[in-house]
Amino acid sequence: MQHCALRLHRQRDADHDGGRIVLSQTHALFAVTGALVLIGAVVFKPVSRSDAPRLPSDSGEVLERLPPRDDAARTRDSVRKALASRPDDLRAAVWLARLDIEASRKRADPRYLGQAQSALAPWWDLASPPEQVLVVRATIRQSLHDFDGALADLDRVVAEAPDDAQAWLTRSVVLSVRGRYAEAKASCGPVQRLAPSIVFTLCDASVDALTGHAAGAFDRIQHSLQAAATPELREWALSTLGEIAGRLGRGDDSALLFEQALALDSEDAYARAAYADRLLDEGRSADAAHLLAGRTDNDNLLLRLVLAERAMGDPIANAHAELLAARYDASRLRGDTVHRREESRFVLQVKKDARAALDLARANWQVQREPWDVRVLLEAALESKNPGAAAPALAFLDENHLEDPRIQSLAQRLRGMR
Amino acid sequence: MFWAHPALAHKPSDSYLTLEVREAIVQGRWDIALRDLHNAVDLDSDGNGEVTWGELRARESDVASFALSHLALSADGVACPLVSNGLRVASHSDGAYAVLSLRATCPALPRALRVTYTLFFESDPQHRGIVRIDDGGGTRTAIFSPRESQQTFEPSKPNRLGQLGAAVRLGIEHIFAGLDHLCFLVALLLPAVLVREASGWRPVPRLRPALVDVLKIVTAFTVAHSITLSLSALEVLRLPSRLVECGIAASVVVAAVNNLVPILGKDRWAAAFALGLLHGFGFSATLMDLGLPRQNLALTLFGFNVGVEIGQMAVVAAFVPLAYLARRTWVYRRVALGGGSVAIAVVAGVWFVERALGVKIF
Fold first, then answer.
1. What is the DSSP pairing of strand B50-52 with strand B82-92?
2. A-B contacts (CB, under 8 Å)
3. By CA distance, what is A273's nearest residue in B?
4. Which residues contact A161 (CB under 8 A, 6 or more apart)?
5. Burial class (CB in 10 A: 0-12, 13-18, 19+), A72
6. Do the Cβ atoms of B34 and A335 come within 8 Å?
């Protein structure tokens, strides 16, 4: 009897326990299910990779739009054909290379630079190629951010052919990108007697504008504006003025100047990017997005577009950010380092990874020192609370007196942290 | 006179070549930008500035022969003849690419595989070939440029842990990629929270017996398919793939119909075991398609089986709690069990006809 009661008792306990166990088991199972589904979603996401090959079902499906076959493209094709039968024709080769460089500038597309290099193939690897080849080779090298190689070529050209205005000018630009302002200014000197006066003014005043004389530089360029004989020179002057006005804190002037420059050449991606930066700094992200609409095939413009869309809370920013990240990945895969400045901005502001941004900004600083190179280093150092990393840029600012309210306030905050 | 601003803002020209070295066979996938290809092979036959799939496909043999004339593989000094066996397209971040499927046959498993890559170097020295080589033991990436157009790769020492991990992953993926195995599993699981009685289905009183039932079914299935998978992978036993595929479809029909009319008897785990034997042959076909490294077959088989089991357990974990909560409802018994089983039986029946007759119904 007692035995039986005990059994009953146990049975009830077991039932009771069983009920509790069932309940908590169900909960646990749900938790496990949720976790598994989550893990599954993360692990198996790559199954739908966007570069997966596919077999289109419609033969009329348009896969790619080719660059337009304009007059310039037809000219290049015919020169290329002529060169193919006589590849050592120096004059034709240099001509074609210049046309290709022009196309690369117009479309901001490095493929044309590779073609220019190909035109110069018989001379490309020579230690001392003819002078015309040196200038073109230097232009290609600096476009590929091989600044040392470009400077070596240009130094030889100006030594051997001191009347080559383009060589002096390009040399000044490269030295300026490197932050070697005294030499950059000196390289403008010979341009005065070799080229129209506005070219000299633009060369010389551009250096002044970065070394504490921005207001004077602005006035000088503005005065010489009516001397701009061609739309190209005028556009160059206007976009330079737009940049200087921006750094002087004259936002309205800057916007107007950029608008005028883009009206003369809507394909100037450099001016468009600089204008977009100005708008972004002023919090006018909708205007920036409008300026950049549809320009997603240019990485630099795409970066500004992503920043504008994010500032506006536009959901398309995520898709554009993914596209840009894929481009940076592809660029890294091929061993390129030309995008580090832009990528540092992207990583800092979009990916919010201050340390990675700082690594990129520091590596970039070893190669180039334009105002934006200073700025990305300062911003990344500030965000990663590492003021020491900004030391070289701060010393550079002390030395050169760059006028730029944004950069100066960043520098102020970093100095306060030390 | 120009203002030389270094503002390159487009991606330069690259191609992406993936080579998978399996024994003496090298399988490849080569992605080449249409913009670049067009400079060598006219892809815009109507000259409207657009490349359509029809225009590309019409030049397939020219594209393939142009590309293959700029790539060479050799194993320990002996050339591995390359053929292209298919053209597709893919989108990369900078536009559309043609995708060539390649196959090279070497005399034997190369100790050193030499790759010579010269695509577009003549017309664009800034072009780069980004080549990924996967030899089953690991993956390496190399960049080909005019200065480095020839590079040699020695197969890596097999990384056992990596290989095991890859096999486990493959097993998991297989469960979710193959609809027939999923259907089979669901058909077996649907009645797990119910008990069949003469008058019809009754909900199980508690979760534990339902879980034990499920565990028995899934484990029986795993043990069974492990046996036939191993036998087949080790080439002890082979069945014609058509027979196997038809059998799998038929097994799904049987499992689903059994939920409507009892035909398999009370011990469903025994049925799961019998049908699992059949599914193992199907798994083996998947594994063989991937070209297994022979040296670590046992490890790969083990990993694949573990992966399949993990995949199944994930399905169980997702399914059983919901089914348990819903087991008393009319919806579960009529719609989920009844309707679900009918749907699975019909779909699997279609598969059976398709596979048996070699036709495509859907």
1. unpaired
2. 207
3. B7
4. A131, A167
5. middle
6. no
Residues counted in chain A: 418
Per-residue confidence (pLDDT) for residue A23, from 0 to 100: 40
Contact B143, B119 (CB under 8 A): no
- Cα separation of B166 and B158, whole Å? 12
What is the DSSP annotation of A16-48?
Answer: HHHHHHHHHHHHHHHHHHHHHHHHHHHHTGGGG
SS3 of residue B309 by DSSP:
helix
Taking CB atoms and an 8 Å limit, are A65 and B50 in contact across chains?
yes
When CB atoms are compared, the residue of B44, B125, B207 closest to A26 is B207
- What's the DSSP call for residue A54? B
Q: Which residues of A touch B175 (CB under 8 A)?
A: none
Query: Residues near B73 by Cβ (< 8 Å), separated by ≥ 6?
Result: B19, B26, B79, B80, B82, B104, B106, B113, B114, B115, B116
DSSP A141-209: HHHTT-HHHHHHHHHHHHHH-TT-HHHHHHHHHHHHHTT-HHHHHHHHTTHHHHS-HHHHHHHHHHHHT
Interatomic CA distance for residues B86 and B95, integer angstroms: 20
The set of residues, in sequence order, having a beta carbon less than 8 Å from that of A347 and lying 6+ positions away, is A353, A356, A357, A360
Q: Which of A26, A110, A236 sits opposite B10 (nearest CB)?
A: A110
| Out of A47, A63, A114, closest to residue B124 by CB | A114
| Interchain CB distance below 8 Å, A330 and B93 | yes
List beta partners, residue B315: none
Number of Cβ atoms within 10 Å of the Cβ of A415: 12
pTM passes above 0.90: no
What phi and psi values does residue B214 have, to the nearest 5 degrees? -60, -45
Contact A297 B35 (CB under 8 A): no
**pLDDT, tens only, A77-110:** 999 999 999 999 999 999 999 999 988 887 778 8
3-class secondary-structure state, position B292: coil
Nearest partner of A276 among A254, A260, A253, judged by Cα: A254
Dihedral sign, CA of B347, B348, B351, B352? negative
Pairing of strands B78-79, B71-75: antiparallel
Domain regions of chain B by residue span: 14-153, 160-357
- Residue numbers in B near A115 (CB within 8 A): 123-124
The tens digit of pLDDT for each residue in A198-214 reads 999 999 999 999 999 99
Location of structure tokens 């279609």: B350
Residues B257-269, mean pLDDT to the nearest whole number: 80
Residue type, B272: A
B139: chain A residues, CB-CB within 8 Å: none
Distance CA A202, CA B3 (A): 9
In Å, what is the CA distance from A93 to each residue of A116, A122, A133, A142, B120?
8, 9, 9, 19, 18
B130 and B15 Cβ atoms separated by less than 8 Å: yes
Predicted confidence band of residue A168 (pLDDT cuts 50, 70, 90): very high
C-alpha angle B2-B4-B5 in degrees, rounded to nearest 5: 135
Name B201's bridge partners.
Answer: B196
**Whole-angstrom distance, CA of residue A364 vs CA of residue A299:** 17
Q: Are A204 and A190 in contact (CB under 8 A)?
A: no
Sign of torsion, CA A239 A245 A249 A252?
Answer: negative
pLDDT band, very low/low/confident/very high, at A27 (cuts 50, 70, 90): very low
| Mean pLDDT, all residues of chain A | 87
Residue A36's pLDDT band, with cuts at 50, 70 and 90, is very low
Nearest one of B137, B305, B3, B228 to A191, comparing CA atoms:
B3
Nearest to B103 by CA among B155, B58, B62, B68: B68
